[in-house]
């Protein structure tokens, strides 16, 4: 009996060591498979985005269809409203956004000089403090500079990537249209490809994922749009420069739970600091008002508590996502965590839910 137990533990240890060895070799060979992966992601990215749009719009199409509207007409209405609205927003918003980005670029030397003056003042006023405290303050400033530089570099890389993929992105509306049009056929095709013994469990699993993730994603996008629009209007009312540019950043980064509002507030605070202390106070108040509105009104009303995940787990996922994938990792961390939670729950309780 003891020999059997010892052999079982030896077998498990060998499998674990083999797994770690395989992962080690896999990551050592990343210079071979990483370029191929990036190429595949670039080619598949329009299909991934179109699939996400299809996933978000399909329930609305089905609701209209069940209310008595013929499915082709329901599809046309939702497609026209969504892509028409997005297209009109891009048509009006991109020129304004680019103009304000160029204005921010022109004012960048002023921002740098203001920042250098602020840092020198901090250095001067803290020079009389004990060496340990002074060194820690300087270290904190250096760490903040590196963090901001990393965030700006990732944002710039993301913008450059978006423009470089412009022609691929044009395909998204067409791909999304055919996915919405043939949604049932695609489901049937996937169902046929799935082995018979996994079909019932697979349907149950996807149903649980949709229940956990679908309402969160749809609600979160709507909340981000509202927060971005409110931020733009409030910044414009209080005569903050570049309101559309800064409001867009606040809205987009708001999709990242907990850390997003802080990341989105940094550009506004930095620009406000070059104007006056009063403007800094106004910007800080605006950010707090928006976060109060989101946390106490919009998110409970629109998103609700669909994920049922403890905040500590969400924070851990965000830290891991930011470390592995940067800004994109922060955005994808919570949806992937939701899928992982459903997967683990499903493995522990394999019986399909109703």
From TrEMBL:
<feature type="transmembrane region" description="Helical">
    <location>
        <begin position="221"/>
        <end position="238"/>
    </location>
</feature>
<dbReference type="InterPro" id="IPR002549">
    <property type="entry name" value="AI-2E-like"/>
</dbReference>
<feature type="transmembrane region" description="Helical">
    <location>
        <begin position="270"/>
        <end position="293"/>
    </location>
</feature>
<keyword id="KW-1133">Transmembrane helix</keyword>
<protein>
    <submittedName>
        <fullName>Predicted PurR-regulated permease PerM</fullName>
    </submittedName>
</protein>
<feature type="transmembrane region" description="Helical">
    <location>
        <begin position="69"/>
        <end position="91"/>
    </location>
</feature>
<dbReference type="Pfam" id="PF01594">
    <property type="entry name" value="AI-2E_transport"/>
</dbReference>
<feature type="transmembrane region" description="Helical">
    <location>
        <begin position="313"/>
        <end position="340"/>
    </location>
</feature>
<comment type="similarity">
    <text>Belongs to the autoinducer-2 exporter (AI-2E) (TC 2.A.86) family.</text>
</comment>
<keyword id="KW-0472">Membrane</keyword>
<keyword id="KW-0812">Transmembrane</keyword>
<feature type="transmembrane region" description="Helical">
    <location>
        <begin position="33"/>
        <end position="57"/>
    </location>
</feature>
<feature type="transmembrane region" description="Helical">
    <location>
        <begin position="162"/>
        <end position="180"/>
    </location>
</feature>
<feature type="transmembrane region" description="Helical">
    <location>
        <begin position="9"/>
        <end position="27"/>
    </location>
</feature>
């Amino acid at each position: 009996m003891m020999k059997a137990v010892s052999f079982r533990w030896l077998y498990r240890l060998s499998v674990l060591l083999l797994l770690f060895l395989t992962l080690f070799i896999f990551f050592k060979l990343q210079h071979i498979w990483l370029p191929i992966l990036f190429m595949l992601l670039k080619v598949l990215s329009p299909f991934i985005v179109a699939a996400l749009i299809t996933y978000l719009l399909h329930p609305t199409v089905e609701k209209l269809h069940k209310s008595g509207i013929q499915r082709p007409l329901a599809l046309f209405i939702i497609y026209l409203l969504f892509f028409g609205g997005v297209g009109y927003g891009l048509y009006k918003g991109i020129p304004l956004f680019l103009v304000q980005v160029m204005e921010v670029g022109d004012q960048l030397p002023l921002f740098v000089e203001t920042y250098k003056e602020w840092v020198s003042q901090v250095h001067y006023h803290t020079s009389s403090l004990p060496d340990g405290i002074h060194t820690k303050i300087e270290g904190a400033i250096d760490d903040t500079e590196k963090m901001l530089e990393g965030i700006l570099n990732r944002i710039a890389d993301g913008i450059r990537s978006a423009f470089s993929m412009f022609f691929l992105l044009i395909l998204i509306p067409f791909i999304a249209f055919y996915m919405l049009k043939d949604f049932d056929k695609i489901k049937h095709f996937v169902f046929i490809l799935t082995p018979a013994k996994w079909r019932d469990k697979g349907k149950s699993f996807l149903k649980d994922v949709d229940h956990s993730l679908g309402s969160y994603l749809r609600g979160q996008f709507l909340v981000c749009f509202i927060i971005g629009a409110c931020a733009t209007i409030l910044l414009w009312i209080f005569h903050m420069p570049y309101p559309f540019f800064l409001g867009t950043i606040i809205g987009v980064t708001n999709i990242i739970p907990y850390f997003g509002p802080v990341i989105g507030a940094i550009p506004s605070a930095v620009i406000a600091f070059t104007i006056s202390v009063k403007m800094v106070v106004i910007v800080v108040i605006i950010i707090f008002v928006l976060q109060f509105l989101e946390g106490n009104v919009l998110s409970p009303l629109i998103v609700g508590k669909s994920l049922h995940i403890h905040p500590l787990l969400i924070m851990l996922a965000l830290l891991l996502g930011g470390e592995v994938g940067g800004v994109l990792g922060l955005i994808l961390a919570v949806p992937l965590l939701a899928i992982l939670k459903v997967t683990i729950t499903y493995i522990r309780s394999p019986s399909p839910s109703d």
